[in-house]
Amino acid sequence: MIILIPKEPQANETRVPALPEAVKKLVGLGATVQVESDLGKSLHIDNAAYETAGAEIVTDMDAAFGKADLVLRLNKPAGPEGLKEGTIHVSYLDPFLDLENVKKFAAAKVSAVSVEMIPRTTIAQKMDALSSQASLAGYSAVVQAAARLQRSLPMMMTPAGTLAPCKVFIIGAGVAGLQAIATAKRMGARVEAFDTRPVVEEQVQSLGAKFLKIDLGETGQTAGGYAKELTPEQIAKQQEAMGKAIAKADIVITTAKLFGRPAPRLITDAQLAEMQPGSVVVDMAAGSGGNVEGSKPNEEVVLHGVTILGDTNLEGRVPYDASQMYGSNLGNFVEHFWNKEEKKFELRREDEIMEGALITHDGEVVHKVIKERIG
Ligand code: NAD
Predict the structure, then answer these.
(1) pTM value > 0.90
(2) What residue spans define the domains of the chain?
């Protein structure tokens, strides 16, 4: 069975789908692993390191795509072009928003697995790329904000005077938000956070941060543990209640997302105007609609003297660790479905992980929810 790991075509992508250690694991399962030449260039990892791990280095990608049984990638690909029928393709796929691409994969009879759809169950935790990448993104958000802030984060008592700790407000305390809280605390900031899921309060407090209490009435969470969409009245109430915390914060990090839907708009232009000039806002939802009015995906804008970062690849700021974790997620996924006797990947559709993540198969869109969206 040939597993192919091509380079990511996006010029600004710093991560790779697998480090040599992940390749070694796949080779150990008995797969023939082919890696595109210069796969590790952005991380200064040369071809020889992949060869030592057991990979074959390939340069003729048209031929390699045409022969591959399983393709492992990171970002959503442009389409299934060049893949033979029956190929299994594993990557981010953005299946809720890019239905046209999903249709292309179905038409090409490629079995597309979407890593963001891997169910967040206990058994699938080690394959959960959303969590591994969000955790690093949360860390990076604080580091990037700190680098732009004109102040230091910790309190400093010096003969020249005392510097007060800076104030960080974090909106949304899921995987990314909790890691951002922990990072900002470690850097000595005073941290406050809010999330619509009440269960999060204790987790926020256990990290030493203050939980902002806002009574929004019924909010709750879905069976999958995700936040439910708020009503316009609840959003308005939330915005008003967060006003003070936003105005006094030096750094605001917004991580509020709704799975499969656009992110809620939580900070208005008027609220940005209330912030101290020189403050920094990181909108971690900039790529899915944006939590902050005026934020732009992958741009740094200044409004009312406030710097707003819309970086959609914050995990890519720590590309080695992000690649290591993503490659490990992929390796664990492949291992879970690996038939050791026959040395091949088995597309066991009855497995709940495959049922959740398989979007197209055998010429059809097979994922229940995505199929409904296509209609
Ligand atoms: P996410 O990225 O979809 O959202 C980030 C956070 O934003 C969430 O905490 C959400 O509640 C919050 N949010 C949404 N709307 C908001 C609003 N209006 N105001 C403030 N906050 C808002 O979420 P995530 O980080 O991917 O995690 C979602 C859930 O999945 C969490 O409960 C997490 O613990 C759970 N999870 C479980 C597993 C597992 O069991 N294997 C793994 C990962 C995550």
Answers:
(1) yes
(2) 2-117+321-366, 134-317
